[in-house]
Amino acid sequence: MLQKEGYHVAAVYHAGDESARMLHEQSGIRIFKWNVADFDACKRGVAAVESELGPVDILVNNAGITRDTPLHRMTSEQWTDVLATNLGSLFNMCRPVIEGMRARKFGRIVNIGSVNGQRGQYGQTNYAASKAGVIGFTKALALESARFGITVNCVAPGYCHTDMVAAVRDDVMASILATIPVGRLGEPEDVARIVAFLAQDSAGFITGATFSANGGQYMA
Ligand code: CAA
């Protein structure tokens, strides 16, 4: 959606070479491969993006994984992987771009949270903690960045048609669907539309906010 609106877009992925190749072929979007849970990889990656496309003015932190299991069965690795990817990535990606944004007096950072970071979810102590952390991170960085023309906001999607949601057990998914007032899953476009709105130059008065797109499942 950002590309359709005329931005020069770079996308980062870690796993899924085939999907990445197809996205590039279909859209022409520049694709980069690194792990956003790795700070040094992010530093190097951002430098590579900037040398090809110029300074990063808009950053969308949307990398996320699940390792769903109740806490009494959760391994340390399942905890650490989710926190490192979903929350650690915000530090790892914002840190290399924030100084440039401050110097240029402009920036748009949009962090993807989750309804489950707002309300909790059985089997997701790791994921809910990471996504609640995204909201706190967003507010703190919004405060630090406001006087530099940089906005920092969070979009908190509910259950949408994605591979991540498709992986949820059928019986669990049926019970979740019953709690969504609009009676259906969301679409990725429902989320992208908010991101594109927040990325606009004219959205400069909106910062530190969390926008829900969850079909009424949770009204924060
Ligand atoms: N609330 C209350 N009780 C629940 C429950 C819930 N949501 N889910 C399970 N239970 C109960 C079961 O009914 C069962 O009770 P009995 O023992 O009385 O039969 C008991 O807890 C079973 O507990 P277990 O600890 O053995 O759990 P389980 O193996 O049945 O299920 C799980 C564990 C597979 C992790 C499952 O809870 C689950 O899939 N949770 C996560 C689902 C989910 O929403 N994931 C989101 C992925 S998508 C995403 O995250 C994107 C986004 O941002 C929205």
UniProtKB/TrEMBL annotation:
GO terms for cellular component: cytoplasm. Belongs to the short-chain dehydrogenases/reductases (SDR) family. One of its GO terms (biological process) is poly-hydroxybutyrate biosynthetic process. One of its GO terms (molecular function) is acetoacetyl-CoA reductase activity. It comes from the Bacteria. Keywords: Oxidoreductase. InterPro entries: Acetoacetyl-CoA_reductase, NAD(P)-bd_dom_sf, Sc_DH/Rdtase_CS, SDR, SDR_fam. PANTHER family: 3-OXOACYL-(ACYL-CARRIER-PROTEIN) REDUCTASE (PTHR42879), 3-OXOACYL-[ACYL-CARRIER-PROTEIN] REDUCTASE FABG (PTHR42879:SF2). This is 3-oxoacyl-[acyl-carrier-protein] reductase. The lineage of its organism: Bacteria, Pseudomonadati, Pseudomonadota, Gammaproteobacteria, Lysobacterales.
